Known about the structure:
By secondary structure, the chain is α/β, with parallel strands linked by helices. Helix content is 40%, strand content 12%. The chain has a domain at 34-234 and 291-307: Rossmann fold (3-Layer(aba) Sandwich), CATH 3.40.50.1110.
Amino acid sequence: MKKMMRKALGLAFLTALVSCGGGGSQISTFSPERVIVFGDESSYIGADGSKYTTNYVSDVGVADCANSPIWVQILAGSYGMSFPECPGSTGSSAVGVMRATVGGTLETMTTNIDAYLANFGFHDKDLVTVLIGANDLVNLFQRYPQTSAQTLIAAAEQAGEQAAEQVNRIATAGGRVVILTVPDLGLTPYALERDKFDPTSSAFLSQLTQRFNAKLRVNIINDGHKIGLVVADELLQQINKFPPGVDNGRALDVTRVACSVALPECTNKTMVAYPDITASPTTFLWADPLHLTAYGNSELGKRVVSRAHSNPF
């Protein structure tokens, strides 16, 4: 009897210890009050709801921005939020804040962060997303070979350090950040097209991307509680190496573009008719030479949601 009582008391003590946080601090679930978006057009939603992906139009010609969401919409929706530019995404109040810009570079993002800090500031219930660097790297690549590869690689590394500096500014100011590495630009249709003129193009674009991402990763605050990292380059490499089956066993097309018109005008009604298949937002990875389709955004969104919800913010 005494042994049973000691066992019961021991279990009660352990229960109380756990409930009080004994033996280690408890990690509570992070519930953001806002999702604030910085970056380039890959994160951008226009005032009319258009996006730099394969937008959706119904059979009667009605645009629906909640359909074919980009990755930041998927993330916001996982917290029951949407953006004023597309309030129909979740049916809830639109509390997402769009600060991404078309053609955005590190310079423009830094200016946008400066303005946000000056006018609003960041708080510990702000979830801030950052995806930047693709346009900077393309701009560097376009200077090759007039500018040496060594010089351009050094510039890419410096840009990665600058990106990390901006992420750290947000985190130090109180925001909780999800930062994405730049997808491997050497695997894009843009790179494959350049290979026709210079077969080293895709390899060099991959090298620029890798050096940017390496400097970004090593320089961000690495305590695990302020910043969550999503390795978008590795995700893209995995999809490219092992394209999933998406259409009766046919593999996802990872090399060609789906859109017959320029973004953001592209919709599911303006797909390219190739000799072997008509493109679609769910069977092609790339909308245009540098931007993902609805499928690509869905895969990226899944990875971002997983990181945001599992990170101990």
